[in-house]
Predict the structure.
Amino acid sequence: MRYLIFILLLLNTNSMNAELIGQDSGLKLPRFVSIKSDESNLRIGANIDYPIRLTYILENFPLEIVDEYQLWRKVKDIDNNQGWIHKSLLKGNRYGIIKTSHDQSASIYNKPMGVVIGKIGNRNIIKINKCFSSWCHIRINNYKGWVNKINLWGVYPDEKFNMPFYQFFINLYWQII
């Protein structure tokens, strides 16, 4: 009986630490995606017969998928607008939005904690190339640089992605110079 209780507790603990997985896609929830086209409708329900809540008119606008139902994804945007959008209107490319105070801009650095090479205004949409613990490498038009995650919507605070296996040596190099 003790072993049975122990096994049940162990299984319960493991399931509590497991990521939430979308039933239809098999991908983790929540996750960030972006809009494929320059006109995409957000609906109040998961069907084309539901009324349109709003229309996104910017390609690459980032959204957070919070739920799934068949071919539909429940999404949330930077302003907490929520609704359903057809999965064919979404892509996995990572984009973000600069989020600062209304009259502030975010600094762009040549490397994490490096020299400021530019500024970018609030609510600009940027391509996120890779993210480390507190910094993301971004691109806007032909300009590239590093932005502190605090100034981005479209990436989770503890999220890291597209880090090369040799990143440890790059970080060491940055600390030396």
